[in-house]
Write a structure and sequence with these properties.
The complex is a heterodimer. The radius of gyration of chain A is 22 Å and the shape is globular. Helix content of chain A is 30%, strand content 19%. By secondary structure, chain A is α/β, with parallel strands linked by helices. In chain A, the strands form 2 sheets. In chain A, strands 2-1-3-4-6-5-11-7 form an 8-stranded mixed sheet, with helices on both faces. In chain A, helix 2 (73-83) runs parallel beside helix 10 (297-312). Chain A starts with 22 loop residues before the first helix and ends with a strand. Chain A has a domain at 2-209: Rossmann fold. By secondary structure, chain B is α/β, with parallel strands linked by helices. Chain B is built from 20 helices and 24 strands. In chain B, the strands form 5 sheets. Chain B has a 7-stranded mixed sheet with strand order 12-11-13-14-16-15-22, with helices on both faces. In chain B, helix 7 packs antiparallel against helix 8 (201-220). Classes of the chains: A alpha/beta, B alpha/beta. Chains A and B meet through strand 2, helix 2, helix 4, helix 10 and helix 11 of A and helix 1, strand 10, helix 9, helix 11 and helix 12 of B.
Chain lengths: 331, 618
C-alpha cells in the first residue's frame, strides 16, 4: 500500500487559506510530496503547529493534526511523540512562534533530541497580526509597532539551533523546490530532532525580504549549498569556492575549496557557516549545516519504563496500595 | 488520665491525645524526626494527623527565626481530625525555635529546650535580649532543660565521627528521648536508619546510638516525673491501614485511576513547592507503566500532558498556584480539543509567589473562573489525606468519561500532612474502561455520545485522521468554523457536557443536625477542623449540620433542598470567602456567612467552634 502513496493522498479536504502568492503554498506542496516519497501511511503521521500563518498547515494535511497554542507546539509534540514513538511527527512553526513566545520550548526540544522534524517558516515578520517586526527582522525594520525602525538585534535561527545542541540543522528556500525536497527527505531520515529553517516570502507584509540571496536570478551566485562530503563550490558556473582558514571562512578558487562536513565533533564549523548570512561579500549558506547522532529523548524515557518493568515486574495495583508498613484494626 | 505505676519505674500515665511540636533549625532534621515519630505512632495503632511547617528557604541563616522549621503532630487513642490547635509539648532545638513557638503552647504545656543552643550568640541570632529560659517568659509552662549538643557528643565520643557529623545526630537523640517519654518502640526507626545509611553503616550506628542514649536519658537522668502512653485507637473502622501523606496519596490515586480506565499515565510536570513530591512519587513508579517528563516550564509541562492525551494516554500535570496561572491557556486548549487531562493544584499561600510552604484555599476562583472565554472545567477538592486518593481516582474517571480536563485541588496541608489511611478494596473499585474510536465509517471527531463526550481517536488508527486545535470547532466535523450559530451551539455543548457530570455524582451527606439554625459548609482541607469543632460543640450539647463539597464544579444536585432546611449557612475557608461568594451567586435565597482566615495555616477547630457558638447565640 505504501508504495502507491502520492502527494494527493496527503491533501485534506480543507480549502487552503493563505494569501495568494504566499510562500507557504510551495512549502505545503513540497511537504505533501515529501510525505508521499517517504511513504509512511497517513495515519502514522502527525503535524503539530503553534499559532501564526504557517501554523494553519496541519489543517491542510490528510494526517493527524494538532493546531495548538502560540509557541507550544514543541512541548505538545514532546508528549505526543513520547507517548507514541511510532508516529512520524512534524512541527510547523514560524519565526515569531518558535523564537519569541516559544523560544524556551524550541531550545529544550533541540537539546532533548526528540525524533521529530521542525519546519520553521522564517518570513522575518508577524503576518497574522498584520505586519509587526519579529525576532528575526533585521534591526531598523520599520513596521506599525516600530515606526522609527526596530531596535532589537535579530536571532539567527541556525545559530540558535546550533547553540541548543541540535543534531540536524538545515536551511532551504520556499521557491527552491528541488532543494527543499532533498532537505526534507534528509531531515525525515535523521534520527533525532531535525531543524529546518525555510526562507519564506510574505507577499503582503515583507515581500522580497530574501530576494538579495534567494531570488532565482541571483540565487546560484549568492548562496552555497552545504552538502556533507562535497566540496564547497558555488556559483552559476561553479566557479567559486569556500575554504576554512583558521577561524574564518574565505572565498577561494573551486579547486582549493574545502570539503564540507556536517558531522564535526564540534559545532564550530557549522556555527561559523551560520554567521555568513548577512555578509554581502560571502554566499548565504543553505543545505545541511549539521547532522550528528545523539541519543533520542523518547527512546530514553520509554527505555527507563521498560527497564523498570523488566527489573521489578509489572506493578500490581494492590502491591502499590498495600506497600510499606501496614497494620490491621479488627475491633 | 489514669496513672499506673510499674514496679521500679516512673509512673506511666495514659494520655488520650497528645500534640507535639518539634522545632529547630532548617538543617536540624526536624521534618525527619517528626516523620519518624509519626511512623512509630501509626504502627502503635494511634490515630494521628501531622502539620509540617517549614520555611521556603532550604537553609536560612542558622539560628535565626527565619530558619526555624517545625513539625507538629497529634496522636491519639481516639479518632482525631486535626494536628491540634496548640501543642502540649514543644521541643525547641535552639533559642529561635523556642522564641517562634512557645506562645502557641497550651498553658501548662511541656517545653524541652536544648540548652546547648541558648548561648549569647544564639540569643542574639534569635533577636532575644534576654534568655527566655531565665527571664520568666516561660512561667506557666513546665520546662525541661537538656544540653543535647553535649549529651550527643558524650554518647558518640567513640564513634569515630567528627564533631560536625556527631552534632548531626542530635535530632535522633531528641527522638529517642521523646520515644521514651511516650513509650514508643524504637525498632522501626532503627530499621529505617539501617536502610537509609546502607552504604555508610557507621552513620546508621551513630544515629541509633544517639537515639538509644536519648531513650535511656529519660530513665537515667530523672528529667521527668513520669512517662506517658497513648493506647491504640479503637474508634477507627476495621481494615488495613498505612500511614500516608497527601501528595503520595494523590500519586497512588492517579495510578489507580489510570489503571481503572485501562490507560497509562504520562505526567508532564515542573518542580514547584508544595506539589513536587507528586512528580517524585510517580517518577519512582515507572514499573506501573507510568511515564514522567520533567519539562522546561509549567506551560511545557501541561502541553506535554495534552500531547500525550492526544496520543491516547492519560495526560496529567501537577502544580501549585503560580504554575496554575501559567497553565491557564493550555487548559483552555484541552477544553477546546476535548481531551482528557488531570490537573492537580496543590494550593499554597498567594498571590504571586506568596507563601510557598504554607497552606491556603485561595485558588478556588482561579480554578472555576480563571480562563478566557466560556470555559467550564470540572473542579474537585479533597477533604483529607485519605480522600486525596479517592479524589484522584474520581478526577481520572470524569476526565475520560467526559473527555475533559479536570482540576483537582489539594493544598499544602493535605500535601505534607500524614494520616492513617484505610486501604481501599482494590477489586471493588468500579472500572471506567476507555473505548477508543476504531471504526472509520461515519467517524466524526466532534460527534457526541449520550454524555456529550466526543470520540477519542488515537493517532496511528487507520482511516481516522483528523485535525484538532484551539480554533472554534464545527459541530460533528471538528473543522474550523467561524459561524456565529455554530459558536453559540458549541459553547452550550461544552457547558452541557460538563453540567451533565452532575448525573454521575452523589449529593453530599449532612453530618450532625439534619436541620435547624445552622449548616456549616466546607470544602477541601478544612474538613478535619470543622469536624473537630462539631465534636467539641456536641460535647457541650450544641448541634449544627456539617456538609462538605468534593465536587465544586459542577455542584452536585440536591443542595438547594439541603440549604432550605437551615436558617443560615456558615462557610469557613482559608481565603476571604471565595466559596461563600460563589454560593451566593448559585443560591440567591440562602444566607451564606463567610468565615475566612488567611494565616497560611490550617483553620483552627476551636476558632471555628467559637464562631459557631457566637452565631447560634444570636
Amino acid at each position: 500500500m505504501t508504495d502507491t502513496l502520492t502527494k494527493k493522498d496527503f491533501k485534506s479536504d480543507q480549502e487552503v487559506r493563505w494569501c495568494p502568492g504566499c510562500g507557504d503554498y510551495a512549502i505545503l506542496n513540497a511537504v505533501q510530496q515529501a510525505c508521499a516519497t517517504i511513504g509512511k501511511p497517513q495515519h502514522e503521521v502527525a503535524f503539530v503547529s503553534g499559532i501564526g500563518c504557517s501554523s494553519r498547515f496541519p489543517y491542510y494535511m490528510n494526517t493527524y493534526g494538532f493546531h495548538t497554542i502560540h509557541g507550544r507546539a514543541p512541548a505538545i509534540a514532546t508528549g505526543l511523540k513520547t507517548a507514541n514513538p511510532a508516529l512520524s511527527v512534524w512541527i510547523i512553526t514560524g519565526d515569531g512562534d518558535a523564537l519569541s513566545i516559544g523560544g524556551n520550548h524550541l531550545a529544550h526540544i533541540l537539546r532533548r533530541n526528540l525524533d521529530v522534524n521542525i519546519l520553521l517558516f522564517n518570513n522575518e515578520i508577524y503576518g497574522l497580526t498584520k505586519g509587526q517586526y519579529s525576532p528575526t527582522s533585521p534591526a531598523g525594520t520599520r513596521t506599525k509597532t516600530s515606526p522609527m525602525g526596530s531596535i532589537d538585534r535579530p536571532f539567527n535561527p541556525i545559530s540558535f539551533a546550533l547553540g541548543c545542541g541540535a543534531t540536524f540543522v538545515a536551511r532551504t528556500i520556499d521557491t527552491h523546490l528541488k532543494h527543499m525536497a532533498g532537505v526534507l527527505e534528509a531531515a525525515a531520515a535523521h534520527k533525532g530532532t531535525s531543524f529546518i529553517e525555510i526562507y519564506q516570502n510574505c507577499v503582503i507584509f515583507n515581500d522580497g525580504a530574501f530576494d538579495d540571496v534567494a531570488d532565482k536570478k541571483v540565487r546560484d551566485d549568492r548562496t552555497i549549498d552545504l552538502e556533507p562530503g562535497q566540496k564547497m563550490i558555488y556559483g552559476k558556473d561553479g566557479d567559486k569556492g569556500l575554504k576554512t582558514e583558521g577561524f574564518s571562512m574565505v572565498r577561494c578558487a573551486p579547486e582549493e575549496a574545502s570539503t564540507w562536513t556536517a558531522a564535526s565533533p564540534y559545532g564550530a564549523p557549522a556555527f561559523l557557516m551560520s554567521g555568513l548570512d548577512h555578509d554581502p561579500e560571502m554566499p548565504n549558506p543553505i543545505g545541511i549545516f549539521r547532522s550528528v547522532d545523539a541519543p533520542i529523548f523518547e527512546d530514553g524515557v520509554n527505555g527507563q519504563v521498560s527497564a523498570a518493568i523488566e527489573k521489578k515486574g509489572r506493578g500490581k495495583l494492590k502491591d502499590l496500595i498495600y506497600a510499606g508498613e501496614t497494620w490491621d484494626i479488627n475491633s | 488520665m489514669t496513672t499506673t505505676t510499674q514496679s521500679g519505674e516512673l509512673p506511666l500515665e495514659l494520655a488520650e491525645t497528645v500534640v507535639i511540636r518539634f522545632a529547630g533549625d532548617s538543617g536540624d532534621g526536624m521534618q525527619l524526626t517528626g516523620n519518624q515519630f509519626t511512623t512509630s505512632s501509626a504502627l502503635v495503632g494511634n490515630d494521628l494527623a501531622t502539620l509540617p511547617d517549614y520555611p521556603a528557604e532550604i537553609r536560612a541563616p542558622a539560628g535565626t527565626r527565619a530558619g526555624v522549621s517545625g513539625f507538629q503532630l497529634a496522636f491519639s487513642s481516639r479518632d482525631i481530625h486535626t494536628p491540634g490547635d496548640s501543642p502540649d509539648v514543644l521541643v525547641a532545638m535552639n533559642a529561635a525555635a523556642l522564641a517562634v513557638n512557645y506562645k502557641q503552647l497550651k498553658p501548662g504545656g511541656l517545653i524541652i529546650a536544648n540548652t546547648g543552643n541558648f548561648g549569647e550568640k544564639d540569643l542574639e541570632k534569635a533577636q532575644l535580649k534576654t534568655n527566655p529560659l531565665a527571664d520568666g517568659s516561660l512561667d506557666g509552662f513546665r520546662v525541661i532543660e537538656i544540653d543535647i549538643n553535649k549529651r550527643v557528643a558524650e554518647a558518640l565520643k567513640d564513634s569515630g565521627l567528627n564533631a560536625k557529623e556527631v552534632q548531626r545526630c542530635k535530632n535522633f537523640y531528641t527522638l529517642g528521648l521523646l520515644y521514651w517519654l511516650y513509650s514508643r518502640p524504637m525498632d522501626v526507626t532503627e530499621k529505617w536508619l539501617r536502610d537509609k545509611f546502607g552504604k555508610r553503616p557507621e552513620l546508621a550506628e551513630a544515629n541509633i546510638t544517639a537515639m538509644k542514649a536519648g531513650y535511656n536519658a529519660g530513665d537515667i537522668h530523672q528529667l521527668f516525673q513520669g512517662r506517658y502512653d497513648v493506647k491504640k485507637c479503637q474508634e477507627l473502622p476495621n481494615g488495613t491501614y498505612r500511614n500516608i501523606m497527601g501528595n503520595p496519596a494523590v500519586g497512588l490515586g492517579l495510578i489507580a485511576g489510570a489503571e481503572l480506565a485501562g490507560l497509562e499515565i504520562v505526567l508532564g510536570s515542573y518542580p514547584i513547592t508544595p506539589a513536587t513530591t507528586i512528580l517524585e512519587t510517580l517518577a519512582a513508579y515507572k514499573h506501573y507503566g507510568v511515564t514522567t517528563i520533567q519539562m522546561e516550564d509549567e506551560i511545557a509541562a501541561i502541553c506535554a500532558a495534552i500531547g500525550a492525551s492526544f496520543a491516547g494516554k492519560l495526560g496529567v500535570t501537577t502544580t501549585s498556584g503560580p504554575g496554575m496561572a501559567l497553565k491557564t491557556e493550555a487548559m483552555g486548549l484541552a477544553l477546546m480539543t476535548e481531551l482528557p487531562l488531570v490537573i492537580v493544584n496543590v494550593q499554597r499561600g498567594g498571590p504571586s509567589t506568596g507563601l510557598p510552604t504554607k497552606t491556603e484555599q485561595a485558588d478556588l476562583n482561579q480554578a472555576i473562573f480563571g480562563r478566557n472565554g466560556e470555559s467550564p472545567i470540572p473542579v474537585l477538592a479533597c477533604a483529607t489525606v485519605g480522600d486525596a486518593f479517592e479524589c484522584a481516582v474520581e478526577a481520572c474517571r470524569i476526565a475520560v468519561e467526559y473527555m475533559t480536563p479536570v482540576i483537582l485541588l489539594t493544598d499544602g496541608f493535605i500535601a505534607n500532612g500524614a494520616e492513617p489511611w484505610k486501604l481501599p478494596d482494590i477489586d471493588a473499585l468500579p472500572r471506567f474502561e476507555v473505548k477508543f474510536a476504531q471504526d472509520k465509517d461515519g467517524f466524526l471527531p466532534y460527534s457526541r455520545d449520550e454524555k456529550g463526550a466526543r470520540p477519542w481517536a488515537k493517532p496511528g488508527t487507520p482511516g481516522l485522521q483528523h485535525r484538532i486545535g484551539g480554533l472554534e470547532k464545527a459541530h460533528l466535523t471538528g473543522n474550523v468554523s467561524y459561524d456565529p450559530d455554530n459558536h453559540e451551539f458549541m459553547i452550550h455543548a461544552r457547558l452541557e457536557k460538563v453540567m451533565g457530570i452532575r448525573e454521575s455524582i452523589p449529593t453530599p451527606k449532612v453530618e450532625g443536625a439534619q436541620n435547624g439554625k445552622l449548616l456549616v459548609l466546607g470544602w477541601g482541607s478544612t474538613y478535619g477542623a470543622i469536624t473537630e469543632a462539631r465534636e467539641q460543640l456536641h460535647r457541650k450539647g450544641i448541634e449544627f449540620g456539617q456538609m462538605h463539597l468534593r465536587h465544586l464544579y459542577p455542584l452536585p444536585k440536591g443542595l438547594a433542598e439541603i440549604f432550605a432546611r437551615y436558617d443560615r449557612v456558615l462557610v469557613p475557608e482559608i481565603n476571604l470567602g471565595q466559596l461563600a461568594r460563589y454560593m451566593r451567586g448559585e443560591f440567591q435565597n440562602v444566607e451564606f456567612l463567610s468565615y475566612g482566615r488567611t494565616l497560611g495555616l490550617p483553620l483552627r477547630a476551636h476558632e471555628i467552634a467559637a464562631k459557631i457558638e457566637t452565631l447560634l447565640e444570636q
